[in-house]
Amino acid sequence: MEYFFSNQYANEEYLFRDLFIWKEEKYRKLQGSYPVIFVSFAGIKGDTYETVREGIIQVIIDLYAKYSFLLEGDFLNRQEKAYFDYINAGMSDAVASMALHRLAMCLKRYYDKKTIILLDEYDTPLQEAYLYGYWDKLASFIRSMFNFTFKTNPYLERGLMTGITRVSKESYNPGPDR
């Protein structure tokens, strides 16, 4: 998905030439045409909330480092550029919750096009939280982050979240005490 949509891979159409999607002109026009934020929570595991939160924070820090080119030029205003300084290991939950929303805003400003956000294995840290007993705390943090990132984000063109939890044949019920 990232290689298909991301403008960072605009010249990689050879990857798709033999695929069914490449037969339609309207889809060929989409290849390499969007700013894309790809996030993976695959490696975020831990037996405490603090460990998992630290992993999520590091993913955000790495994303902002990847997009530090946004600080060059006059595409962003002073406040938007200053927000990059808030993205650090000591950032508050509020700043972390808004981080992907704000990054999408900066990309929209830079490219003048809404952003696609791809979140892989969104549920890996949640499974850890359920397993080790800090579900309520992490679920609250993740809920806030997902609300700002996917639900109330005017800079989002499309979002896709993929997970590892099987839900087609199994029920994921944390029970009455969780």
Give an account of the 3D structure:
This protein has 7 helices and 3 strands; from the N terminus they run H-H-E-H-H-H-E-H-H-E. By secondary structure, the protein is mainly alpha-helical. A 3-stranded parallel sheet has the order 1-2-3, covered by helices on one side. The longest helix has 19 residues, at 93-111. The mean pLDDT is 93.
> What overall geometry do the principal axes of the alpha carbons give?
globular
Number of strands: 3
Low-confidence stretches: none
Distance between the termini: 34 Å
Order of strands across the widest beta sheet?
Answer: 1-2-3
The succession of helices and strands, N to C, reads HHEHHHEHHE
Helix count from the secondary structure assignment: 7
Strand content: 5-15%
Structural class by helix and strand composition: mainly alpha
Alpha carbon gyration radius: 18 Å
Could you give a quick summary of the protein structure above?
With 178 residues, the chain is mainly alpha-helical.
Give the SSE layout.
Elements: H1 2-5, H2 25-28, E1 36-40, H3 49-66, H4 78-86, H5 93-111, E2 115-120, H6 124-132, H7 135-151, E3 156-162
Parallel strand pairs: 1-2, 2-3
Helix pairs in contact: 5-7, 6-7
